[in-house]
């Protein structure tokens, strides 16, 4: 496993710091995007150069696995490559589509979805078949992927319609896309899993329920084998994780999901192997 950063700067800044290091970024609309592995000596030099020049940049880190690591795994953390859209109406979607009785009474986090989501516009999948929404990180899929999953008889999920947001009482389902609604929830991760603390906004603090204040582990997720005996093909973690006050349950999938997606060249997600412990 190797750590890689996706670094975004302006094209002008790329000429100053990327070009001298021999790093060739993708450029479009005045933006330069470079992918650099952390074990590349140029990564540390680049970080120091941008800091000394006062260059503000966006950095997204991801773990890249060798083929042997992926082939040996039994379960995976399924991570979206892109997000699109958010539930509507923005000011009260939680009241409309989630059961407040299932949320923490102190922080209000963790309500379960009980109604199909409503979105403005039509989901943009690009060249892929699956994308996650902003805020709640639920997966939306194309008709193609829905049929692939259904024909393989995978378990642990349902396909819910996606409602076109119009502000009217009458609901209309969008054609050609669905929510991949995962219903199976796992036991807690292994006690050896380390959750980084999140820097919360002033006045906020971690909740005793554990649904606010913990981030996604920087290392691969860990589960005890015994705790995955209840696992289906699609699962949600019992933990709610993420930066700031926006947390969500992680999506954990079986080997069958990984093999099916690879076989059918499904784009839109990355798979990170999960470490199994005795």
Describe the structure using short key phrases:
five-stranded mixed β-sheet; alpha+beta; 2 domains; 278 residues; globular; four-stranded antiparallel β-sheet; single chain; Alpha-Beta Plaits; 17 strands
Strand portion, in percent? 25-35%
Topology pattern, helix = H, strand = E: EHEEHEHEHEEEEEHEEEEEHEE
Number of domains: 2
Quote the distance from N terminus to C terminus.
22 Å
Oligomer state of the chains in this structure: single chain
Rough shape?
globular
Unreliable segments (pLDDT under 50, ≥5 consecutive)?
none
Secondary-structure class: alpha+beta
Helix amount, in percent?
10-25%
What's the pLDDT, averaged over the residues? Answer: 94
| Number of strand segments | 17
Notes on the structure:
This protein has 278 residues and is an alpha+beta fold. The chain has two domains: 2-64, Alpha-Beta Plaits; 68-278, no CATH class. It has helices at 11-17, 41-53, 67-72, 93-97, 143-151, 255-263, and strands spanning 2-10, 26-28, 31-37, 58-64, 75-80, 98-99, 112-113, 118-119, 130-132, 139-142, 157-164, 173-182, 222-224, 234-241, 248-254, 269-273, 275-277. 25% of the residues are buried.
Give a concise summary.
With 278 residues, the chain is α+β, with helices and mostly antiparallel strands. Helix content is 18%, strand content 32%.
Write the layout of secondary structure elements.
Layout: E1 2-10, H1 11-17, E2 26-28, E3 31-37, H2 41-53, E4 58-64, H3 67-72, E5 75-80, H4 93-97, E6 98-99, E7 112-113, E8 118-119, E9 130-132, E10 139-142, H5 143-151, E11 157-164, E12 173-182, E13 222-224, E14 234-241, E15 248-254, H6 255-263, E16 269-273, E17 275-277
Parallel strand pairs: 8-11, 13-17
Antiparallel strand pairs: 1-3, 1-4, 2-3, 5-15, 5-16, 6-7, 9-10, 10-12, 11-12, 14-15
């Amino acid at each position: 496993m190797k750590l890689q950063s996706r670094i975004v700067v302006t094209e002008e800044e790329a000429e100053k710091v990327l070009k001298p290091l021999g790093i060739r970024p993708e450029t479009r609309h005045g933006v330069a995007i470079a992918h650099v592995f952390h074990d590349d000596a140029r990564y540390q030099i680049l970080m120091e150069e941008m800091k000394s020049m006062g260059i503000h940049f966006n950095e997204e880190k991801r773990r890249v696995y060798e083929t042997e690591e992926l082939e040996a795994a039994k379960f995976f953390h399924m991570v979206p490559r892109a997000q699109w859209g958010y539930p509507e109406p923005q000011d009260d979607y939680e009241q409309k589509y989630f059961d407040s009785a299932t949320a923490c009474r102190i922080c209000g986090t963790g309500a379960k979805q009980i109604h199909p989501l409503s979105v403005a516009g039509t989901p943009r999948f690009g060249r892929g078949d699956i994308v996650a929404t902003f805020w709640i990180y639920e997966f939306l899929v194309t008709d193609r992927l829905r049929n692939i999953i259904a024909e393989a008889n995978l378990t642990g999920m349902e396909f819910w319609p996606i409602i076109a947001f119009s502000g009217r009482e009458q609901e209309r389902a969008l054609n050609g896309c669905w929510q991949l609604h995962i219903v199976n929830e796992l036991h807690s991760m292994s006690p050896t899993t380390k959750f980084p603390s999140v820097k919360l906004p002033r006045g906020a603090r971690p909740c005793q329920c554990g649904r606010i204040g913990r981030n996604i582990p920087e290392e691969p997720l860990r589960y005890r084998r015994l705790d995955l005996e209840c696992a289906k093909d699609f699962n949600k973690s019992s933990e709610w994780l993420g930066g700031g006050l926006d947390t969500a349950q992680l999506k954990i999938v079986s080997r069958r999901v990984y093999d099916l997606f690879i076989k059918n060249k499904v784009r839109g997600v990355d798979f990170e192997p999960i470490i199994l412990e005795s």
